[in-house]
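User: quick one, sequence for these C-alpha cells?
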C-alpha cells in the first residue's frame, strides 16, 4: 500500500473496503521511518495518536459514519498549529515545553473530519526566517536534492509532502511561506483569501498578513484540504462569514473563455530571475492560450512597493508579539530569528501608518486588474531551490521568493509546479485570483497541472 495515494483515490478505496485507514497510516509511518532521518521533516511523530485515529476511522466507516473527504486519511501539521495534549514548539527553544490544552481550529476541523494526525512538522523558528542550525531541531531538507533548502517557513511540510510521506500537510503563509516551499519542492501550495480559514490557535507572526493553507501533491488534494478547513470563525477577528463552495466541482472545466493577466514587470527584469523561471512562465502562458484563455500582459504597481509594504507590516507586528522575550530571553532565540525580529524595534508608528495607506492603494490596484482578468500569472520563486551552502542571508533568500504581494492584498494565491530544470530541481508558476474565488483559481491551477504534463512526472526518490 503506497503512502502517497491521491486523497480522492484513498477516500474511494476506504469506502469501497479495498484499503483501511490503518493500512494507509502504517504505510505512511513506514515511509517516514525510511526517509525522514535524511530529510528532518518531522519534529514529532504522534504514532499512538495516529493509530488510534486510524482504528477509529475504520470502525466509523464500517458502521456507515462518513465524516467527509479526509476521513481515515493521514495528514501532518506545521509545528505552529496548537494541538491539545501534543507539544507545539514553533521550532524554538522558548517553547520546547509548551503543550496546548486546546486544538487550533484547523487541527480541530481535521479531527472532526476523521483525519489521521501523523505528527508535527519542522518550520523556521516562529515562522520568521532560516534555515538555521542553532535551533532545537535540524532544518528540513529538500527531497529533490538534500543539499538544497526546501524553502521556508513551511519547510517540514514541503519536505514531508515532496517526499511522499504524506499527500497533504498544513503550512502557514505570511510572506510566501506556503508558496515558496511549494515552488522549491515541486508542490501545490495554496494561500486562501485572507479570512477564509481561521488562524485561531496558530502561533501568529503578523496578524494582518498570516494565512493558513495546505501544501499538497496535486491541485485536487489542495482543494480537498481547503474544503475541510474553510469556514467562518467568530473568534478570529479576520474571519469572514461567507458560503464555502464545492472546490472540486469545476476543477476539470478548463480555461476556455477565461482572461489571465501577466504582471511581467514584477519578474522579467529582476536581478535574480533565472532563464528556467522565465521560460516556464512563457510556456505556461502559451499552453493556456492554446486551451482557449486570453493571456496578456497587465501593468501593476512595482513589486518593490508590495515588498516594502509587507515587510514593514510583518516585522513591526512580529516585534510587538515577541518584544517581551526579545528583552528578557534574547539568548534563547536562534540568531536568524533574533536578527529579523529586532529590526521591528526601529519601525515607528508613522512607518506603520504609511504602510497601511500604501496597502490600500496596492490592494485597489490588484482589485482593478482582477475586474478585467479572472486571474494573474506570475512567478512564485525567481530561482530553483538554493543550496544550503549558497551563503544567502535569510533576507536574500526571501528576496528570491516573489509572493508577499498577495499577503499584502489578501487575494488567494497558488503555486503550481510545471517543470524540472536540467539540474533536477522543480520550477513553477504562481496564480492569484479574486477574493473568495479560490474555486476559479484552483480550476486554472488544475489546467496548468494537466497542460504542463506535471501530473505525469516521477517524484524524487529521496535517496
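Assistant:
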Amino acid at each position: 500500500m503506497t503512502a502517497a495515494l491521491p486523497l480522492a483515490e484513498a477516500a474511494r478505496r476506504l469506502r469501497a473496503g479495498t484499503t483501511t485507514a490503518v493500512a494507509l497510516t502504517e504505510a505512511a509511518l513506514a515511509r517516514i521511518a525510511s526517509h525522514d532521518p535524511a530529510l528532518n521533516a518531522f519534529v514529532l511523530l504522534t504514532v499512538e495518536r495516529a493509530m488510534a485515529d486510524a482504528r477509529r476511522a475504520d470502525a466509523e466507516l464500517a458502521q456507515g459514519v462518513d465524516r467527509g473527504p479526509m476521513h481515515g486519511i493521514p495528514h501532518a501539521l506545521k509545528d505552529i498549529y496548537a494541538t491539545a495534549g501534543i507539544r507545539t514548539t514553533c521550532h524554538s527553544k522558548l517553547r520546547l515545553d509548551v503543550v496546548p490544552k486546546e486544538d487550533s481550529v484547523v487541527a480541530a476541523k481535521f479531527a472532526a473530519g476523521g483525519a489521521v494526525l501523523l505528527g508535527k512538522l519542522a518550520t523556521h523558528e516562529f515562522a520568521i526566517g532560516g534555515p538555521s542550525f542553532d535551533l532545537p531541531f535540524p532544518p528540513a531538507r529538500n527531497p529533490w536534492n538534500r543539499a538544497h533548502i526546501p524553502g521556508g517557513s513551511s519547510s517540514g511540510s514541503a519536505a514531508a509532502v515532496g517526499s511522499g510521506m504524506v499527500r497533504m500537510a498544513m503550512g502557514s503563509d505570511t510572506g510566501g511561506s506556503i508558496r515558496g516551499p511549494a515552488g522549491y519542492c515541486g508542490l501545490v501550495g495554496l494561500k486562501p483569501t485572507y479570512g477564509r480559514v481561521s488562524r485561531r490557535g496558530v502561533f501568529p507572526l503578523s496578524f494582518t498578513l498570516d494565512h493558513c493553507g495546505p501544501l499538497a501533491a496535486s491541485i485536487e488534494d489542495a482543494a480537498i484540504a481547503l474544503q475541510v478547513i474553510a469556514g467562518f470563525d467568530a473568534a478570529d477577528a479576520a474571519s469572514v462569514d461567507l458560503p464555502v463552495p464545492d472546490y472540486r466541482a469545476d476543477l476539470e472545466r478548463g480555461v476556455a473563455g477565461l482572461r489571465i493577466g501577466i504582471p511581467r514587470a514584477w519578474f522579467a527584469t529582476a536581478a535574480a530571475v533565472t532563464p528556467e523561471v522565465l521560460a516556464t512562465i512563457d510556456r505556461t502562458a502559451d499552453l493556456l492560450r492554446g486551451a482557449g484563455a486570453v493571456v496578456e500582459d497587465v501593468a501593476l504597481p512595482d513589486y518593490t512597493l508590495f515588498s516594502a509594504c509587507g515587510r514593514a507590516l510583518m516585522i513591526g507586528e512580529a516585534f510587538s508579539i515577541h518584544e517581551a522575550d526579545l528583552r528578557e530571553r534574547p539568548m534563547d532565540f536562534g540568531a536568524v530569528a533574533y536578527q529579523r525580529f529586532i529590526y521591528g524595534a526601529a519601525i515607528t508608528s508613522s512607518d506603520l501608518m504609511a504602510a497601511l495607506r500604501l496597502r490600500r492603494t496596492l490592494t485597489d490596484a490588484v482589485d482593478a486588474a482582477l475586474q478585467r482578468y479572472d486571474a494573474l500569472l506570475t512567478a512564485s520563486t525567481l530561482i530553483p531551490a538554493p543550496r544550503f551552502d549558497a551563503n544567502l542571508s535569510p533576507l536574500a533568500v526571501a528576496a528570491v521568493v516573489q509572493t508577499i504581494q498577495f499577503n499584502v492584498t489578501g487575494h488567494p494565491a497558488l503555486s503550481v509546479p510545471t517543470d524540472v530544470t536540467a539540474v533536477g530541481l522543480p520550477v513553477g508558476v504562481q496564480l492569484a485570483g479574486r477574493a473568495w474565488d479560490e474555486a476559479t483559481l484552483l480550476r486554472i491551477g488544475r489546467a496548468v497541472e494537466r497542460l504542463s504534463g506535471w501530473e505525469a512526472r516521477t517524484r524524487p526518490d529521496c535517496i
